[in-house]
Design a protein that fits this description.
By secondary structure, the protein is mainly beta. Helix content is 11%, strand content 35%. Strands 10-9-12-17-14-15 form a 6-stranded mixed beta sheet, with no helix packed on it. The protein is globular.
Amino acid sequence: MRVRAGKQAVLGMSSSSRSSIGLYSQLLLLLSLTLLCSQLQLTIAKEQYHEFVIQEAAVTRLCRSRRIMTVNGQFPGPAVEVSEGDCLVVKVTNRGNYNVTVHWHGVRQMRTGWSDGPEFVTQCPIRPGESYTYRFTVQAQEGTLWWHAHSSWLRATVHGALIIRPRAGVPYPFNDGKPPAREIPVILGEWWDMNPIDVVRAATATGAAPNTSDALTVNGQPGDLYKCSSKDTTTFPVKSGETNLLRFINAALNTELFVSLAGHTMTVVGVDASYTKPYATSVLMIAPGQTTDVLVTFDQPPGRYYLAARAYASAQGVPFDNTTTTAVFDYGAAAASTGSPAMPTLPAYNDTATATTFTTSLRGLRKAELPSRVDESLFFTVGVGLFNCSGGQNCGGPNNTRFTASINNVSFVLPSTVSILQAHYHGAAGVFTADFPANPPVQFDYTAQNVSRALWQPVPGTKVYKLKYGAVVQIVLQGTNIFAAENHPIHIHGYDFYILAEGFGNFNAATDTAKFNLDDPPMRNTVGVPVNGWAVIRFVADNPGVWLMHCHLDVHITWGLAMAFLVEDGVGVLQSLEAPPPDLPLC
């Protein structure tokens, strides 16, 4: 009643008084947003404080013991569990031997680009012995995301789940609103017997392709099919009749994965912290960077059932980790069998048809809030290439070349003295240029079997593409067949986007635009661009800052398959990038 009476009182005032009240209300709103992470918001959300210590820990895998980089001595790292609307404050202290940053993969980071994490894009790295506190609010997102190191290949072991539940009293929009009996994070990864930093450094020194991993993992363990691994195989206890929510995260560096659970149907209800219409399937295809939430009802005869994952390797003739990782879902005491767990049938490693069926079956839960106008229509080619070897060098790529990769023929080069975001904010010259091309410099038959060798060598550069605040952006992501065509999982920091369509061959606007799903397209932060094909995405540039777009195969971002968007400030404080925090790491 007080609110209603107050509103009537305001309406009865003079225009100048109402203007003063309006200005006062705006100031109060700004103050409340500024105090978003304070205890004043206890009735709506809360602040969560965590401490991450980057440190070495000794582990044994595949009969070998070695020291790896971890967070708090855990591998995988600790799961961070929040409710939508919560503020996260995470102090990261680097007690390791390498520079490091932490990226909160998929978090929108509205106006808080300083907490996004990619090294030399939004911050300089946290040096050994130093610390940095990430501060941001998780808003308008529910489901499964994750966090990981964003420096070199440290994310091989420095990663963990970020679980976002609905606010108190808000039900899940699936399973008739009933909460699942259990929620189980399932983190898929890769393991090298060597230090992954040494793997990538050795490859970078000569321009060769890096060694493939020695094992795939589920929650850090390879599983029964690898040597010296059976006693530590990840096991998930379940009960007959219960419905559980499995939160899959592909944290592998370079491997897209098929996943299946023997004897059980998986119903997809969310991807990349966006809800989907329920989709029942026996197999998932999850690319590095992507997450997939599935409901499973454990309604089979009591027993032990393998969850298995193996590579989807779309590039012909390119080496990959051709092993299979397993975990066990165990019905417990009722499962008296002492035999081997039931094993699912996984697709062949090159089964593009199954991968396509999965990705094209996903639909957004609700009608998309999709602007019909497009302000920025971009066409980006994505693929690998080769640099000629410099004089006197002995290079490790094909025919004495160096592997590279590019978007629109620009191979991205990270700065080394200051981050792009800092240079943008402070107006520093000479760090980047704002001339990233909206289209490829040369049009050609992108998916031809024999692309001219004259097109294989890109141009290195640190280029960004400027976007006005509020612009509606549509991007055609076109894969190329230079050297080897491959499915590229493209991730955009700071944004979710709608996937309007995908297909094979060269995108043809005259015929392929009719295929756009403008009703219920899935929303993601990482899209798989099909091998020798294309995908079309659309989003609104409503988050000011500098946002990296890159292939989430780490071998490819190492080679330069990346670019960045510079989204300009809009009007007023709430459409502008926040000021940098005082503890932002120095270069």
